[in-house]
Each structure stands twice: as structure tokens, then as C-alpha cells.
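Worked example 3. Consider a protein that binds glutamine.
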Amino acid sequence: MTALRSLLHDAALALISARCSDDLDEGRLEAELLYGEVSGLSRASVIARGGEEASGETVTQFEGLLGRRLSHEPLAYILGRRECYGMTFEVEPGVLIPRPDTETLIEVTLTAVRAHPGARRLVRVADVGTGSGLVGLAVAKHAVATKVYSLDSSTTALAAAGRNRKRFGLESRVVLLAGYLLESLPERVDVVTANLPYVPTAVIETLAAEVREWEPAGALDGGADGLDVIRALVGQLAEHLVDGPRAVLLEVGVGQASEVAELMEAVVGGTARVHLDLGGVERVVEVRRGF
Ligand code: GLN
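Given these inputs, the predicted complex is written out as C-alpha cells:
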């Protein structure tokens, strides 16, 4: 018999030694979430019961999940979900795990949608490379006068996006489409938003094992300079954006904003604005035309 508190403390130390967690706070958080998963308890209850004995089947199951985490499987894949922008998204291998960086893209997209002259009727939005559905579903949930097309070339991603769409009851306002970038759009849209792959190929192998070995390369690898997919999208914009008021918002990696801004200005017109994420990194490039 072991006290739950010491079981979790030892697990946190093991997570730090394996370089899965950066510090004790993160290690404890991960251990508490894994224990909550097997015991059906909230994280608060897990902490409150620290003085009780932990034994039997629950400990065995906990050790199973901990073993997976120690081999660098991402916590979100073990739990099957990740919270982002106050919403819980189902994820699985093959689907990029929502990141806090992308909350900036969601915020900036919502601001553009609300400012768009069509906001009192309907703004048509395309979320390209939707993955778990994160950006399109968050926009649809928080801006009611929208019709969202969420596009992806991965059927695994679209299946997850479909489950998440159902979870948030957004079936009537979010259309999921398979295809390459904007190609399958049935009509022109007012706003294009996207978190496309933008990591330069050579950088992929330097990423944490959790990302490199588990997350889909197709959602990360942007080719030699990281901008291959963004360039391909920009090349499709003229055909799929309305001629009237329009906006394009793209998430980018460190140091990519000015080049992407130039590409977008050349096609959409207007002057690009660059938005910082919470870590102060230039994360989102926005171009608006006509509003
Ligand atoms: N920010 C992500 C990472 O560095 C990359 C996401 C992307 O390529 N869109 O892991």
C-alpha cells in the first residue's frame, strides 16, 4: 500500500528524469491528470485524497498510462483530449494537438469576423487545415453569424473534427470538406483562416520526441523554408475569396511573418498586420481589404 501523494510524487520525479516534464509542477500536473483518468476523479479530488492509500487495479492502470507517458506519448493522446480556448477537443494520433499559440489565431479571426460588414447577416469563413477542428469550431461557437467551411486533406483529421463538431452542437453551421487546401470550397468566402504546417523540414528532427515521433508530420512539415504550404494556399486565394470585403489570417512560425505578409499583400491587397502570441512571438499575419 502506498499513499496516493507519494505515488504521484514518484511519478512526477520519473517524468522529470525521462525529460517528459520540465519541472515538478508540470510533472505533478501530468501525474494527477493520469490518475484522474483511471480513477474517474477530478484533479481537485485527486489532490484532496493525497493522504489516502492507493492500491489495486487503479494503481496498475495508472502505471500503464504512466509507462506510455514515460515513452514520450503526448498526454493529450493518452487522455484523448486537449483543452484550448476554453473548449475540450478530442484528439488522437494523426491529429495535431491544439496549442496555446493558436488561441491568438482564433482571437484575431474572431475580431476580423465581427468587424466584417457582413457580420449582421452572415460571414463565410474557411478554416484551412482544420485538424481537430479547433479554429473553425471556436469561430463558429463564438461568432454566431458565421457559416464555416472546415477543410483538411487528412481523413483522420476530418473524422476527429466531425466528432468535435458534434460535441459542440455545431453541425448546422460548420461544413467539413476533404480536399487540398481551398480546392473543395463550394462558394467564395469572406474570410480565410489557417494554421498550416510551417516548420522547416530540417527543424522537425530537433523538436521534442512528443512532437517528432507522435504528431502528424503532414500538419507540421512546411518544406525547406517552412513556407511551401502557405505559398500554395496564397496561390489559391484569388479564386476562392469574394471580391468585396475580405480578410486572410495565417498562423506562422518564428521569423516568418514579414515574408508571409508580403506574399499576402501581393494577392489580397491591403496592408498586413502582425499579431504577437502570449509569448511575444510574431504569430499571426492578417490582411484585410475593403473594411
Ligand atoms: N507551433 C507548432 C510547433 O512548433 C507548429 C504548428 C504548425 O506547423 N502549424 O510544434
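Take a moment to read the result before moving on. The CA atoms of residues 85 and 211 lie 21 Å apart. The chain has a mean pLDDT of 97.
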